[in-house]
Design brief:
This protein is of the alpha/beta class. About 30% of the residues lie in helices and about 25% in strands. Helix 4 packs across helix 5.
Amino acid sequence: MTLVFASNNAHKLAEVRQIMPAGTQVLSLHDIGFEHEIDETGTTLEANSLIKAQTVADFISQTSDLSTPIDGVFADDTGLEIDALGGQPGVYTARWAGEPAANRAKALRELAGQANRKAQFRTVITLIRDGQTRQVEGIVRGRIADEEYGQGGFGYDPVFIPEGHDKTFGELPASIKNNISHRARALAQLVQIL
């Protein structure tokens, strides 16, 4: 089975490829010649995930020179939802303060002095296959650390401590993170509906 993951994010692509079952080829947007920016104009993770998947599915249906038959397209959108901030940054997670270091700094600043540091990462995946659209989600609860720890992962990983662990996603080895992450949980549901 060959699926297109509507992303060129090397970190996400590596994580997805590690999680997907043997026999499933995952292509990036670059692999299919899709070089456009996708405007994420939705106000929810569900809407943005659908926008990305539908945009790429439309591109594939209008492109006749793809060398590999494509069985489906999937896209994800992920948000960090911090309890004490009313679920912020949510759908604006990637662009809350600009780039990743500024986003992490803003989260730490906003929670300075807060006792409630509970948060969750939530990933919504949209799959378009055989003319049908399905959505699944994965959630991992945890808390925001008092400062950054670890160099691994990407985005908010150095400040997010998942439940059941005392280290951030930035400190945990990929082998552990990829088994418990929000994306891993959403991908596990995706695999079930393939």
